Amino acid sequence: RKEVEQDPGPFNVPEGATVAFNCTYSNSASQSFFWYRQDCRKEPKLLMSVYSSGNEDGRFTAQLNRASQYISLLIRDSKLSDSATYLCVVKSGGSYIPTFGRGTSLIVHP
Amino acid sequence: DAGVIQSPRHEVTEMGQEVTLRCKPISGHNSLFWYRQTMMRGLELLIYFNNNVPIDDSGMPEDRFSAKMPNASFSTLKIQPSEPRDSAVYFCASSYGGGMDGYTFGSGTRLTVV
Question: pLDDT > 70: what percent of chain B?
Fold first, then answer.
């Protein structure tokens, strides 16, 4: 089993839709979780950290389920500009090295 | 802060040539990572430095790859000799401490070996 797994997609949704991605991780000692966004031919950029209690930033909500070892990202009211690849990142407490998922591609169409 | 700075942005070279990629991390960040990204393999960690010391180089493909960090503000990744299969985007990223605040990437070097 891969350390961090994501559905590659693409998720093809209309503007205004709500879309959710999941990411599963295999290391139960994982302690830090992030969602990154990567636009085509650009570098990954931090979208948001994922906290144990869940957190929200505008239209974006991130949640952590430790029992089932997955994190999720919910995007409400999708915009054309949300089209990108979303990378899940997991880091264990005893390591400085993050593990990146392969990413989930989102395409928002008019 | 100008962020993580990488150079060159693009590099086209012939097989067998030496290639040197450069990275300037964010000032104050003490962890530096070199990644390679391809469509087939996604983001692969090549090497990780902490306080200028290489901690984990298990991702370095083979002896043709080498990386250095002579000081806190500069790192290089060298490929000698280069091969077509080295064609990829190479990213440098930096973080502070254990990366609790995430990792900042440079804009990458797109390497093409012909």
Answer: 99
